[in-house]
TrEMBL record:
It comes from Paenibacillus beijingensis. This is Acyl-CoA dehydrogenase. Its cofactor is FAD. Belongs to the acyl-CoA dehydrogenase family. The keyword GTP-binding does not apply. It comes from the Bacteria. Signal peptide: none annotated.
Amino acid sequence: MDFRLTEEQQKIIETCRQLAGDFLTRAAEHDRDRTAPVENYEKLREAGLFGIAVPKQYGGLGIGFLGYTLAITELAQGCAATANSFNMHANATGSIAHHPDIPENVKRMVVDLAINQGKLMCTSVSEPSSSSLLATSYTPSLEARRVKGGYELYGKKAFCSMVESSDYVYLYAHPEGDPNPQASIGFLVPIDKGRVKGVTIHDVWDTMGMRATRSNTVDYNGVFVPDELYLHRTDEFLNDFIIRGANWSFGGFAAVYLGVGLGILSYATELLTARKAKGYAQPQGFHPDNRHRIGIMASELHAAKLAMLYAAWYSDTYGPSIATFHHFMRAKYMIAESTSNAAHSASVACGAHGMTKELHLERMIRDAATAPIMPPNIDACADQVGLLSMGLNPMEAMPPLQSVEPPVESAQKEGVS
C-alpha cells in the first residue's frame, strides 16, 4: 500500500485546488439561481483536465484513480455542484477508456472528442423509476431500436447531471425485443447541449442541495445514434457497470462528497478559531463542546479519506473485482456517514453565524444532505459491506421487495409447484 503521489499527480491536484478557489467565488450565485456553471467547465477544459480520467496510452493525463480521487476532492471544496457534474465527464471518459470490451479505435475516437476537440460528456444511468436503494432498478428501460446505419433511442433518463451543457451523453439502452432485462448496449449519444432532434430536456431540478448540477430529466424520442458511436453490448448490465466499473460508477461520487465534508470541516475550523464571544479572551474553538465536535468531525473524515484512498489505490493496483467493489462500498458508506455527521455538527457548533446564505457553510450543508442518497445509498452500501464481510454471495440474498410478478405465480406458470 503506497499513497505517495508522483510529481504529475501533485501538479494536477494543485491545479484543481487553484480552480476550486476560483469556483468558490461563483458557487453561491449558481446555487441561488440553479444555473449551470458553464464558465467552470470551460476553465476545466482550458486547464487540460478533460482527459483527467484517461490513461496516457490514449493521450490522457494518466494520474490513475488515486490521483483523480484527490483532484476531484479539491474541486468539490470550491463548488461541489461543479465537481459532481464534472465527475460525470470523468465517469464517461474513464469508463470508456478502461473498458475491456470497447474496441481500441472506438476508445481513441472518444478520447479525441474529449481531449482534442474539447467535447464535454456526461454519464446518464438513472431512470425515473430507479432507486438508489435497489441496484436492479437501474437496468435500462430506455429502448434501442436497430435502424439503417445505427440505432434510434426511445424512453427517458432522469437525474442527468450537466446534460444541458454536454455535447455527448454516455448511457445504456435495452435492445428492442430482448427478453433478458440486463441486456444492454452502451452508446455515446450526440445531443449538442440538447439541440439534437428527438432530445427534450425537462427543467425539473429545483432542489435543496447540488442545485447547479442541473440534473434534469431527458426524453429520447427517436434520437439517432450512428454505428460508430456504438460502444459495446453486455448481457450482464449490473456486473458490467456496477461491479466491473465500481471506481468510475460510484467511487467518483464518493470522492466528491469527501470534498464536501472536508470543506465543512475547514470552514467550521476557521470560523471557530476566529470568533470570540463578548466578554471572553479566547476564540470559541476553545469551548469544550466545540473542540469535541471538531475532534469527532476531523477523526471521522480522516478515517473516511483513508478508506477512499485505499479503495482508489487497490483499484489502480489490482483492477476491477468483487474485492475492489467491497472497498469502494466501505469507503462510500464512511464518507456518506462522516459528511452527514460533519454537516450536523458544524451547524450546531457554528450556530446562526453559519446558517446565513451569504456564507458558504449553509450551501455546503445543503449539498451534504445528498451524500447519503447518492447511488448506491448509504443503506445499500452497508447491506453489501455486511454480506461481503461475512463472505456471503450477494446474489444469494433474498429480494428485499416483492417483484412485479410474484415468485409463486411465476413458478406456477413454469409448471413448478
